[in-house]
Structures are given as C-alpha cells and as structure tokens.
Design a protein that fits this description.
Low-confidence stretches: 1-47
Order of helices and strands: HHHHH
Number of domains: 2
Helix content: over 70%
Structural class: mainly alpha
Number of helices: 5
C-alpha cells in the first residue's frame, strides 16, 4: 500500500484532510482481503472434526461423566476423613491437610480421568500439551477448593458438637 504525497505543505489543514481521506481506502482494501483469509485460516485450524459420529459423542459424554464421578468420589473421601478428624484435637487446617493427604490417590485417579477426557478431544501436539496443563489446573483447583471447604466444614462440625 503506498500513499501519494501531497504538494500541500505538511502544516496545512488540507494536507491533514487529504491524508485522512486517502488512508481509509487503502485500509478498506486490505481489510477486504484479510477477512476471507482469516475465515479460511479459522476453518483450517478448527479442532473439531467436520462430522462427529453418535458413537464418538456418546464416548465423550461417558468420559466426561467418568472424570466428574471421580471428582465426586474424591470430595466424598476428603469429607469422610475430615469428619473423622473433626473429632480429634488438631486445628481445622491440620484436619483438612490430613484429609487431603489421605485421599491423594483418589485425586490422582480424578486427574488421570480428566486428562484422558481432554486428550480424547484434542488431536494436535499442542492440544495434548493443553490437555495436560488443564488437568494440572483442575487438579490444583479441586485440591484447594477442598482445603477451603474442609477447613470451614471442620469448624462448623466442631461448633455443632460443642467443641469450639
């Protein structure tokens, strides 16, 4: 894209007006070319296959339900351990930490199930890397949410039992 120089002095208002009028035309042409190219690039980079079979959808739904069931099992595990620990002497944070430590095997099962679910959705190497990172993030978030919940849960259970 080249712009013609005006014979008018750079300080004049006419020069500024001329530049303002000329630029949009060039940009419009570039924009008109860029839009179809962007659409073509987006279509070529789409992660989803063009046609997904009913069998593939069902398998994906089962894997999704599977990792969520493992997460629920983990949360049940830590709550059961915290319930047992609430009767003891440790602080609520210590009880929560003990429950999380006791159930780390179940957390690993959830992590692996979630990573498998995501990996099945991704086909590229970048997608596989993203699946691993997302599984790590979900695992960390689940553990920290459990820690926050359990700390408060132990406090409430002890209050109910009169062990403030």
């Amino acid at each position: 894209m080249s712009f013609q120089k005006s014979n008018v002095q750079p300080d004049s208002r006419l020069s500024n007006l001329h530049a303002a009028v000329q630029r949009p035309r060039g940009w419009r042409r570039a924009g008109a070319l860029a839009m179809p190219l962007a659409a073509l690039l987006l279509a070529a980079c789409a992660s989803q296959p063009a046609v997904e079979t009913a069998e593939a959808k069902q398998e994906s739904a089962q894997m999704n339900a599977g990792w969520q069931a493992e997460r629920a099992k983990y949360m049940d595990c830590v709550q059961d351990r915290a319930t047992d620990g609430a009767k003891g002497k440790g602080t609520s944070k210590e009880v929560a930490a003990g429950a999380i430590d006791a159930c780390k095997g179940q957390l690993k099962v959830m992590h692996d199930a979630f990573q498998s679910y995501l990996s099945a959705q991704m086909s590229s190497a970048h997608g596989q890397t993203s699946a691993r990172q997302a599984a790590e993030r979900v695992t960390t978030d689940t553990r920290e949410k459990a820690r926050t919940y359990l700390t408060r849960y132990v406090e409430v259970e002890r209050y109910k039992a009169g062990q403030h």
